[in-house]
Amino acid sequence: MSRFLFTTFGSLGDLHPYVAISRALIERGHTAVIATSGDYRDQVQGAGVEFATAGPGLEELGDYRTQVTRIFDVRQGPEYLFRTMIMPYLRPTYHQLLEAADGADLLVSHPLAVTLPLVAQRRQVPWVSTVLAPMSFFSCYDPPLLAAAPFLPRLRRTFGLTPLRLFFTIVKRGARSWEEPLREFRAELGLPPTDQLAIFEGQFSPFRTLALFDSLLAQPQPDWPANTRICNTPVFDGVSEEQGMLKELEEFLAAGEPPVVFALGSSVVWIAEDFWEKAVEAVRLLGRRAVLLTGPTTLPSLPETVRAFPYVPYSAIFPRAAAIVHQAGIGTLAQALRAGRPQLLLPVAFDQPDNAHRAAGLGLGRVVPFCKITAGRLADELAKLLGNSGYADAARAVSRDLAGTDGAACAADELIACLHGGEDPRAGRVE
């Protein structure tokens, strides 16, 4: 029996994949620990996984709605995230992880877990890196579509690799100052300096990298890290303890035609503002029923054809939708792909525009930036989505392709192989 320590930072989409892998490891007789914000303690332990606190909690970060608003700023959001939510907490997070790593046989990092490689060096324990979305590779061969640079895929097709390499070089130079506190902390620990940036190539382990997204979204590229394996998405969407809520949902679903389901994940939902009113108006214009998953927002009286819930497991509602409207976060997208329903994708920032672009490329949906949504635009896009059977056909085909995949099992087996007689992960391979 081996002990695996995972660390992650962010939203539920950043937590759930590691819960799924941990449960798969536990089923195989191993021990798994997830180290993350204390706000997730109940969710992790409720899933039967050991928990350790690492990183700041919501109270330390200030007003969450304000923070999410600033993080999702298309141009300044990534810098704000690093400078205010990661770098100030390097030392306490490092010491928390150092303690959590006691007795661990393998450490597993999230792309924003910048102190875990330092802990691995201090503990002399191997570590494996993970990425949750194709964007994290910043490949010149398959460039991401960024909210602040939507032209990158077109630039690659038109002019080849050279402009992409120049673009990423400029971006990395601009981001270098964000990580000055991390370089200072490395020096304090007596670790040698490195030219690698933690947000880019420094996030990848020389031991192995697991791509925890569906292979339909991206295929390996020559500039991906060596020893990378695509596992497909480890899916886990939590458990609702509100049985009365699930009963109400079942009654609503049974009372009429499949509804349009609107979901904004666990982050964008905090900055939805009047989105839900636009959604209600859009389905009214179309004469459709709807289910809204509104998170912390409480809505006033709704028409009989619309129901709102703070949260229900996506697996309980997505497969029964007429269409799924969502923000294209990688966790939400993974559930929507498996549901086999057409999608209207409303990306905001970070990996969402790229995820939406890749999903739409499968023929199963349409894309409208979240900032351009009006009730009329929603109604028009949904009418086009629901009026063209090609979207539904493509969505069902994707669902069938994913039916036999088990990303959690694949990732768990890869991690076990790293320690117990599998192929030497340092041999250098990309699958």
Beta strands, count: 13
Low-pLDDT stretches are 423-431
For the report, how would you describe the main beta sheet?
A: 7 strands, parallel
CATH homologous superfamily label of the largest domain: Glycogen Phosphorylase B
Output the CATH class name of the largest domain.
Answer: Alpha Beta
Integer-rounded radius of gyration:
21 Å
Strand content: 5-15%
Structural class: alpha/beta
Arrangement of strands in the largest sheet: 3-2-1-4-5-6-7
Task: Summarize the amount of helix as a percent range.
Answer: 40-55%
Total separate domains: 2
* Average predicted local confidence, pLDDT: 93
Tally of alpha and pi helices: 18
What overall form do the CA principal axes indicate? globular
CATH topology of the largest domain: Rossmann fold
Intertermini distance: 27 Å
Descriptive notes:
- By secondary structure, the protein is of the alpha/beta class.
- It folds into two domains: 3-233 and 405-425, Glycogen Phosphorylase B (Rossmann fold), CATH 3.40.50.2000; 243-402, Rossmann fold (3-Layer(aba) Sandwich).
- Helix content is 42%, strand content 12%.
- The protein is built from 18 helices and 13 strands.
- It has helices at residues 12-27, 41-46, 58-61, 64-71, 77-86, 90-100, 116-123, 152-159, 161-175, 180-188, 243-254, 275-286, 314-317, 330-339, 352-360, 375-387, 389-402, 407-419, and strands spanning 3-7, 31-36, 50-53, 106-109, 127-131, 209-211, 228-230, 260-263, 290-293, 306-309, 323-326, 343-345, 365-367.
- It is globular.
